[in-house]
Amino acid sequence: MTRTSTCVYHFLVLSWYIFLNYHISQKGRNTQMSKVFQNGGQWKYLTLLNLHTFILPFSLVEVILRPHCYPLKKNGLTLLAAASLAYICRVLWIYSETGTWVYPVFAKLSPVGLAAFFSLSYIFIASIYLLGEKLNHCQWGEMRQPKKKK
Question: Where is the chain membrane-spanning (predicted)?
């Protein structure tokens, strides 16, 4: 992909996400339509509509088609941890506001179980990140970001 097509792709994805946030927030105002969003609240549909569960196959295809420049492992895993922490905060905030878990399985877990689940989720995500880096290295060779000159 060229830089222009990558920018267009990211713009379209962001536009879709903004549209979904706006559309779902408008649906919640209508009491008759809000029954559609029962059992988990309206936010769980963002997960389904954005198809985040399909990211792994698309990422694997992208590794084959296009080389990536990965940052240092320390920086990449730190950014991944920050994004994971932000997502966990968002899930907990939604629970504190609505009293309903975004994912119903969380209602069955104790606080220690939730902490273990989130920790194991990060380990799983970090493993996928490292696997992607390894596959990229096998497919395209060493691709590091150039160091900045002082």
Answer: 7-25, 45-65, 77-95, 115-132
User: Does residue 52 have a pLDDT over 70?
Assistant: no
The 10 Å CB-count burial string (b at 16+, else e) for 51-87 is eeeeeeeeeeeebeeeeeebeeeeebbeebeeebeee
Claim: this prediction has a pTM higher than 0.85: no
**Single-letter amino acid, residue 81:** A
Task: Evaluate whether 55 touches 61 at the Cβ level (below 8 Å).
Answer: no
Neighbouring residues of 120: CB distance < 8 A, sequence distance ≥ 6 = none
Domain count, the chain: 2
* Whether the predicted pLDDT of 55 surpasses 50: yes
Q: Are 139 and 64 in contact (CB under 8 A)?
A: yes
Each residue's pLDDT tens digit, 80-103? 999 999 999 999 988 998 888 888
Q: Do 128 and 107 sit in the same domain of this protein?
A: yes
User: Same structural domain for residues 30 and 76?
Assistant: no
Pair of tokens at residue 135 = 């596959």
16 and 55 both lie in a single domain? no
Query: What is the extent of the structural domain holding 114?
Result: 51-150
